[in-house]
Amino acid sequence: MRYIKKLSVVFTLLIMLVFGTVSVHAGENYHIFDLDDSLTNEEENILASRQIELEQKTGLFIAVVITDNLEGKSSQAYADDFYDEYFGINTNGILLLLDNQSQWDHISTSGSAINLYSEAYIDKIFKAMDFSLHRGDCYGAAGCFLSMLDKNAMFWYEFRGMFVTGLAAGAVISLIVCLV
Asked: Is 33 exposed, middle or buried (0-12, 13-18, 19+ CB in 10 A)?
């Protein structure tokens, strides 16, 4: 009887280890979708590494889609539909669509990313990508997109840190004043 209990515990731990490992690897899938082969394998791997790092840092889904076929949709409709199909409706994330056919690129946001990356900031992202976009450099544009996301994320984390520090300092000062 005791042998069976030990065996069931070992078996349960083994199952948890296997499924735990699978879920960790599933979470590290990259979201660079080069549907018209505009990137080299090395460029795609570099972007994927940066994208995965940013997802872990921000907790958002981040994707880059490069295509030359919008399937008859507008760039906004294609980007929104692609995001919703891949990540789900009302999840937290941002997607860059680079359309190599019409040159009408789009950035789609969902959930908390809507507030984190405002329309004004999205305009800044496009201005930063402008040089690469005019040259047809998808790698440069996607790299710039990821850099701008990282820059904005760092701003929000620093702001949040200063806010929490200020709140804590205010609470301590209020406590001291009340005690005196």
From this structure: middle
Cβ count within 10 A of residue 150 = 16
pLDDT tens digit sequence for 126-178: 999 999 999 999 999 999 999 999 887 655 544 444 544 555 555 566 667 66
**Edge-to-edge, what's the strand order for the sheet holding 106-110?**
32-34, 61-67, 93-99, 106-110
What is the 3 state secondary structure string of 73-128? CCHHHHHHHHHHHHHCCCCCEEEEEEECCCCCCEEEEECCHHHHCCHHHHHHHHHH
Tokens of 125: 């992202």
Residues belonging to the chain: 180
**Which DSSP letter does residue 60 get?**
S
CA 72 remoteness from chain centre: 27
Please give the angle made by the CA atoms of 77, 147 and 133, to the nearest 5 degrees: 55
Q: Which residues contact 94 (CB under 8 A, 6 or more apart)?
A: 60, 61, 62, 63, 107, 108, 109, 110, 113, 117, 149
Spatial distance between the Cα atoms of 66 and 32, rounded to a whole number of angstroms: 8
Distance CA 124, CA 149 (A): 11
Whether the CB-CB separation of 40 and 72 falls below 8 Å is answered with: no
